[in-house]
Amino acid sequence: MDFIAHGFWSYIIFHRTKKALYAVFFGLLPDIVSWGPYFFYRLFTGASFGKPDISQIPSWTYTLYGIGHSLIVWLAIIGIVYLILRRVPVYLYAAPLEVLMDIPTHSQEFLPTPFLWPVSDWAFPGISWGQWWFMVLNYSLIAIFMVYILNEKRTEKIKNK
């Protein structure tokens, strides 16, 4: 799934929590971990933007992609946070949820989701989120849920006046 959609879905799922914007951040974090450094790398090397040529992506980007998109890594992080805090902030679950969304929405031909990294490089044979029909469906659902949520918040605000 694309970066912007992850942010919206994180908000949609966690909008009733006290720190919904933290959930949005954690929902974007797997992509930020891998593609943030690559973005700055391309920016400083003067590379053009758009769909990257897979052969031109540095190997360290794939390592970061594996780290950021690994359910094993996220379960370890959640476990460490639990050991330290004796609880897990609900917004932290947005990161592995993003990975779960990516598993079926990434094809094996272009950036399959390495959700079992570092144990295995097997990837689910999903569909590409970049297909026009998926983008229309995905953003239509996002729009419907966002209208509902915003209407719900507006109604609550009116009731509380």
Short description:
The protein has one domain. Helix content is 62%, strand content 0%. It contains six helices and no strands.
Question: What distinguishing features does this structure have?
Answer:
single chain; mainly alpha; globular
Topology, pairings included?
Blueprint: H1 3-14, H2 20-45, H3 59-68, H4 71-85, H5 94-102, H6 132-159
Written description of the protein model:
- The protein has helices at residues 3-14, 20-45, 59-68, 71-85, 94-102, 132-159.
- The model has no long low-confidence stretch (mean pLDDT 94).
- The protein has one domain (3-159).
- It is mostly helical and 161 residues long.
Distance between the termini: 39 Å
On the 0-100 scale, what is the average pLDDT? 94
Q: What's the total helix number?
A: 6
Task: Determine the fraction of residues in helical runs and give it as a percent range.
Answer: 55-70%
Instruction: Return the string of H and E elements.
Output: HHHHHH
Shape: globular
How many individual domains?
1
Total strands: 0
By secondary-structure content and strand pairing, the structural class works out as mainly alpha
Name the beta content range: under 5%
Major beta-sheet overview: none
- Rg calc: 17 Å
- Contiguous runs where pLDDT drops below 50 for at least 5 residues: none
